[in-house]
Write a structure and sequence with these properties.
heterotrimer; B: mainly alpha; 3 domains; 12 helices; C: mainly alpha; 5 helices; about 75% helix; flat
């Protein structure tokens, strides 16, 4: 059972780490700012989400696991509003003559 | 692996510091400085100083960035031609910084090995305070006087900021809100503060036994308050209001009162009676959290810029 | 397991920090803020991983604070941007 949980942790954490790589590459290589913003939110949501998911079986207590999930939920709120705010700045600047 | 991580952190911190110092435009420097604070917080966790890492995360992420970015935005509005310091001024600043850094490095390197430490003594006396977190014990029991004076310094800093207001505006409210807050900003101002208050209460409570504490909690509350004011959900308070001023001095006053009470019920100034240390410390922390939150929030909000309502 | 967690943390931090250094040289201020945002999330992930590696539960609280305040500096940044008239060309000469 523990080896199964460990394997799950490894796979999820590995995927999460790769998503951070993908997000950074997108931030650097995508053609325009809005696409780069899109790449950023993938790393924010899915990257951190996979790492939290992977660490859940390793949590020492129920409260510890719950806190891990809270970290991810807070990241959801923060990342979503931050993306909207940044996109708003870009939009206003573009629509200005 | 950990060695590699530590070396990488040091290298990035140095590179970022050089970038901040060299950056020509203020905004770029501030953004790099926010990133610097993030990495510095990680560095503190590597030194097992989790309390400090939390303070760095709260101050760097919540208050310093906001303070610097707002100051930069205000400066940009005021003058179209940004003033850059002269070459000699820059050189003098560079020399002063280098001398201070070299002095600190010398001081650290000249420690005997192993360095003198009071950690065993602090851990041994922990039982008599009833606390589980040695950092809180140092801050509020062994060296409570330092903490008390530090809070007074915070209030003095706020007085300094307030006194920048012209005479006719004294006692008025600082102007914080934007002309039009975009909808996502208002959403953030509505949804984040409940979580922030919850986490601040948790920080303050858990600080007695685990990393966390009053300063972290106060900073989180201050950041949430600033968010609400910036989103125009609540106006900034008039600085002459009595309740505001009472809450501002409440924490330090309670601290002083407990300190003087120590003459009557314990061994002297700021000593706690046997067995009752923990509840007293938690009470002081709660009052201090409110005072710190208000002080930090008002420090960022700045001097009053509207005349008080008659 | 602990070594693998530390390795993953190092990987995430390296990737996001290198991305940040690259973007800091870009001329668009908004993108720098985005890179800081990515470093913040990557930092929180690294803190969680390091906490699991050293089995210190208090590290989760650091990540909690990082994520709670992640949007705050971004919000302060955008609120200063509404009155922003400076063009990207002005900032292109940052890197001398």
């Amino acid at each position: 059972m523990t080896s199964l949980a460990n394997a799950f942790t490894l796979v999820a954490v590995g995927c999460g780490a790769l998503l951070f790589l993908a997000g950074t590459l997108g931030l650097l290589r995508f053609p325009d700012t809005l696409s780069r913003l899109h790449a950023l939110s993938k790393a924010d949501n899915l990257g951190l989400g996979l790492i939290v998911l992977g660490l859940l079986p390793q949590a020492e207590s129920f409260a510890g696991g719950l806190k891990l999930v809270c970290v991810w939920l807070l990241a959801q709120i923060s990342a979503a509003t931050a993306s909207q705010l940044i996109a708003g700045v870009l939009y206003r600047r573009k629509s200005r003559p | 692996m950990t060695m590699l991580l530590d070396l990488a952190l040091v290298a990035w911190l140095l590179a970022l510091a050089i970038h901040v110092a060299r950056a020509r435009d203020d905004q770029g420097a501030i953004i790099a400085f926010i990133a610097f604070g993030l990495l510095l917080g990680l560095g503190w966790t590597r030194l097992s100083a989790i309390d400090v890492a939390m303070t760095e995360a709260a101050i760097g992420g919540g208050v310093t960035g906001m303070l610097l970015l707002r100051a930069e935005a205000r400066l940009r509005q005021r003058s179209s031609q940004p003033q850059t310091p002269k070459r000699t001024t820059k050189a003098a600043a560079a020399i002063a910084c280098t001398v201070v850094a070299a002095g600190l490095a010398l001081a650290v390197l000249s420690f005997p090995s192993p360095a003198p430490t009071l950690a065993p003594a602090a851990a041994a006396a922990l039982d008599s305070t009833g606390l589980g977190n040695p950092v809180t014990a140092v801050l509020l029991a062994y060296r409570a006087l330092d903490t008390l004076l530090e809070k007074v310094v915070l209030l003095l800093a706020l007085l300094g900021v307030w006194s920048l207001a012209p005479d006719q505006l004294w006692g008025g409210a600082p102007e914080l809100r934007q002309t039009v807050a975009p909808p996502p900003f208002v959403y953030l101002g509505r949804i984040l503060p409940p979580f922030g208050v919850l986490i601040a209460v948790y920080m303050c409570w858990v600080g007695a036994d685990a990393p966390g504490g009053t300063f972290q909690a106060g900073t989180v509350l201050a950041a949430m308050w600033l968010l609400i004011m910036l989103a125009s959900l609540r106006p900034a308070p008039e600085t002459r209001r009595t309740t505001l001023r009472l809450l501002l001095v409440g924490g330090p006053v309670l601290f002083f009162a407990v300190g003087f009470l120590g003459f009557a019920v314990a061994d002297g100034f700021l000593s706690y009676p046997e067995g009752a240390a923990k509840p007293i410390i938690v009470g002081i922390e709660a009052a201090l959290t409110v005072s710190i939150a208000l002080t930090l929030g008002l420090l960022v909000a700045g001097p009053s810029s509207r005349a008080p309502a008659p | 397991m602990a070594d693998l967690f530390t390795g993953a943390a190092l990987f995430i931090l390296t990737v996001t920090a290198l991305g940040l250094f690259k973007v800091l040289r870009s001329e668009i201020a908004v993108e720098r803020m985005m890179a800081v945002q990515l470093l913040g999330t990557g930092g929180a992930a690294a803190v969680l991983l390091l906490g699991a590696a050293t089995s210190s539960p208090a590290m989760t609280d650091v990540a909690l604070l990082l994520m709670l305040l992640a949007a705050v500096s971004c919000a302060a940044f955008t609120s200063g941007q509404s009155s922003h008239t400076a063009d990207a060309s002005e900032q292109a000469e940052d890197e001398a």
